[in-house]
Amino acid sequence: MKRYKSTKAAYKNCFSVRGWAFGFRMKGKIYILSRHDQTRIRNYIKIKQGASIYNSKLTMYFANRLSQHNARFRRMKGLLKKQEYKCSKCGEIFTPTDYIELHHTLNKDGVRTGEYTFVHNHCHIQIHHS
């Protein structure tokens, strides 16, 4: 971190205030901090009453919710739905506590085909180490 000889020099070289916009300078570029009223509020969908991840009858309900909150799943919601919220290797339904990875499918020569599937973390390890 660079040190300055005086507080005035530090203020001049590091901080920027324009009206109510506060910011800082770094390597000649000015970064303005967002105000609290400009911060986007994220709304969440409430879990239905009585739902539990340990209830085997509701596993599909929670698997469907995964696609609404995780950014990777939102982008590829169609793929997850096509897989019926199941791992393409073991066939188990994804739960909120699972570690899920995006797998590039390979042909017999080990070359990527350009297709993707969702698999559990442990299934992904099995695919690549077998």
Report on this model:
The protein is α+β, with helices and mostly antiparallel strands and 130 residues long. It folds into two domains: 7-38, no CATH class; 56-128, no CATH class. Helix content is 29%, strand content 23%. The protein contains five helices and five strands. Strands 1-2-3 form a three-stranded antiparallel beta sheet. It has a two-stranded antiparallel ribbon with strand order 4-5. A hairpin with a 5-residue loop joins strand 4 (100-106) and strand 5 (112-120). The chain is elongated, with a radius of gyration of 24 Å. The relative contact order is 0.09. The mean pLDDT is 77.
Attribute tags:
alpha+beta, three-stranded antiparallel beta sheet, two-stranded antiparallel sheet, single chain, 130 residues, 29% helix
What is the overall shape?
Answer: elongated
Distance between the termini: 48 Å
- Order of strands across the widest beta sheet? 1-2-3
Task: Tell me the structural class.
Answer: alpha+beta
Number of domains: 2
Largest sheet: 3 strands, antiparallel
The low-confidence parts are none
Q: List the total number of helices.
A: 5
Tell me the helix content: 25-40%
Strand content: 15-25%
